[in-house]
Amino acid sequence: MKHFFERPLPSYTFEIFPPKGNASTAGTYAVIDSLVCFNPDLISVTYGAGGTSRDNTVEITSGIQNKYKVCGVAHLTCVGTTRKELHEILDRLKANNVKNILALRGDLKDENDLGEFHHASELIKFIKEEYGDEFDIFAACYPEKHPEAKSMDEDLKYLKEKCDLGVKALISQLFFDNDIFWEWREKARSIGITQPIIAGIMPITSAAQISKVVELCGASVPVPVRRFVNAYDYNQAAMKDAGIAYATEQIIDLIARGVDGIHLYTMNQPDTVRRIDLGIRSVLYTKRYEARG
Questions:
Q1: What is the pTM of this model?
Q2: According to the model, what pLDDT value does residue 110 have?
Q3: Cα–Cα distance for residue pair 28/131, rounded to 1 Å
């Protein structure tokens, strides 16, 4: 298995979520069975609020890495977590041959939830101090700034601090306007952020989904997206078709303009991934055929 950072760009990566608590992981492994057919460069596994899926995250990431021979990335949050607990999780990941971590603060409902760590940068520093280079660390970035940041300049300043601690690559929060992403990336590069920046794309398949996305991450919703969301509010199939088509066009445009990688928020829906992948391949094949004359 080739290491993620040895692979050619642009990369093609997926995010999945595990079941919470003691729920069966069978459904998640069925999703992975379907996703590996698309030859992803990595599959990341989310980490429930407050660590509610912690054990499943470790188990499933280990399975991706060891059973499927795909680079697995375990999300790791530090909200409400002690240094001792983090040591235990990191030791388990290490024992299971999981060498890649997406270091996050985690969702914060109350300031009292913070515990010993207040920022993702503190988690990154902890991992580096305690484990050196045993883990490759990914970090999150926000093309429209973190919702809690006072300004874009402040957000980029903190992102640069994370990168300087030894982050290997960045995975962006989702966005629906590619121009916003490119403008933000230019600003990031201008302040010395050199790590690969993998663009996060989420296909919108329901009106409820778009409302939740805006609430959680503050992503702006361009007019074309608002139009199909409003037009197909009561037609689930048409909504899904439009969302998949829009995401496919986003990805094709990003690849054409030289993006470092695509990170697809799959929502554990392999059929959506299949349709997007088919759409991308169809366009690329057509362009190659036309180029041959």
A1: 0.92
A2: 59
A3: 30
